[in-house]
Amino acid sequence: MIRDGWMDRVNREIGRLTDFLIQEQGPDGRWTFCFESRPMTDAYGILFFRLLGMGEEEIQGMARRLEGLRDSDGLWRVYPDEKEGNLSATLESTLGLMAAGRLESGSPEIEQIREWVRFRGGPAQSSSLTQVMLTLVRLLDWSRLPRVPVEILLLPRWLPISFWDLVGYARVHAAPVLLASHRRFSTRIPGLPLDLSGWGKTGRIAEIRQEGELTARVNDLIQPYRLGRRLAGAALARGERFILDRIEPDGTLYSYFSTTFFMLFGLMALGYPKRHPIFRRAAEGLKSFLFPMGEGLHMQETTSTVWDTSLIAGALTDGGMKADHPTLRRAASYLAVHQHHRFGDWSLKNPRVWSGGWGFSDINTINPDCDDTASALRALAPFATSHPRWKQGVYWLLSMQNRDGGWPAFEKNTDKKWPLKLLQQDTAPAWTDPSSNDLTGRVLYFLGRVARFDLSCPAVGKAVGFLTQSQEKDGSWFGRWGVTYLYGTWAALTGMAAVGIGSAYPPVARGMKWLLDVQNEDGGWGESCRSDQERRYIPLGMSTPSQTAWALDALIACSDKPTPAIQAGIRRLLELTEEKGIAVQYPTGAGLAGQFYIHYHSYRYIWPLTTLANYRRKFGGKL
Fold this sequence. Notes:
Layout: H1 6-24, E1 35-36, H2 40-52, H3 56-69, H4 87-99, H5 108-119, H6 128-136, H7 168-183, H8 208-222, H9 229-245, H10 257-269, H11 277-287, E2 290-293, E3 296-299, H12 305-318, H13 326-337, H14 370-380, H15 390-399, H16 418-422, H17 437-449, H18 458-470, H19 485-498, H20 506-517, H21 530-534, H22 545-558, H23 564-576, H24 582-585, E4 589-592, E5 596-600, H25 603-619
Antiparallel strand pairs: 1-5, 2-3, 4-5
Helix pairs in contact: 1-25, 2-3, 2-4, 2-10, 7-9, 7-10, 12-13, 12-14, 12-25, 14-15, 14-17, 17-18, 17-19, 19-20, 19-22, 22-23, 22-25
């Protein structure tokens, strides 16, 4: 048990975190923390600016960060405990540094890297995304990649196969590549080698059978409308219009770096010159993505201002900050301004509903998501009467529930199976947008904790049914957007607790038992990114602040008293808030299994504050 005086430590830490966050708030009400990933975006960022012949200062800043990410064995990884160097990350980083002029072709360093790449199977074993990049910069040939007919852009949404079966963020990656692939477009970038001879195999990334099956299906569907070259020309025009319509006011495509990178090649394939105003504006937009770090500049995949601001405002409210505090008022004003008013692609499968959601970043105006919307609505709840579109946000969120009872991230009922079978398998999780346990749990948390819905609401009952059906045999839940089973289990348990489901419910009891089974000896919790790749829980071997806070928050929400396991967890969490190093920096956000993970710099403050505050609120009078 925590003895007299220990709650003083909890109170002091809540106060310290609160004071720090107050000081970090920007004048307009936002919080700006880094959305940090590993090497890919910096390497591609160098290639982007080098191709356009601009941004030397930015190029060298990203190159310095790439050099800082290189491990002692001379390789690069996508998460710290990855057993061996990552083939794609090492290829991409090497080419980025060559384009920046920091590695020379034929040098001993390059020879060592090339030997390792050859040993790992060559570029043919890198990710499909890496191989597309290598093809665009003329280091591989298009004949080595599976070809998707560009005419797929013309297929109506009601056909069995359609471009619109992909989720929005997949479509904006795929469209530019389809245009470049059809034109067999590639271009050289100064500083890169002329070819990859001597780097190992450069074979195809997918079986011909899969490519042939998809091509045959698309051809069968377009056969009645076949008009020869005119059909391909119409598809190219459709793809061009699709891209141009989704450029955000800051010049980026859909507010992502990677989509903007591919947009450059897709439009150049159609004849756009390097000095086209669209590319210049995109480059200026991407410069705002650069985040200064100790070792250089990091090209963020996007900025996380709305996400961070809404989560921090909610955590401060949990910590006892009153609604009339200037900090919360400024945050509310900032969030209110960034509620979406435009109809984006989400409306195609969810018609007759007014826009009302929020996106991940304030540069995002057409791609709202359920997670950010639930978080922003929670932060704005104390001001709902003075925010006329707060209820519209709730209606929009409810309208996004899938037919199976769960919630997607971006688009409703976007879960067809053909993309998972016929498109590149290493990117399968990114092609569609099925219901996820973490999104469903977090929406439930908002509906129960803030909107005061309970099991009498049909939407709540369906969501609980979804979570019940999707629980793993060991009692955990898989999380799509965080690492991984700890994240999913936390979201599911806190969501169900918020709508009145307690530990007597067998799935809740099993989930709690699983959390206790995987608790570390030091009282905390930690899970490796490998769990996401292997779809099974893999312990990290140390405790991290955010994962410890998630597990604790779930146990607190579902427990009637402060058990020894909870007390041990609180003790460890208090220690973690004062630590530095790998435990604090470990990525606990997920993007694409085995390829893209996120270290949210805000998480070391948000989740400990939320959990300590919930602990004090529930058990403060029982100690």
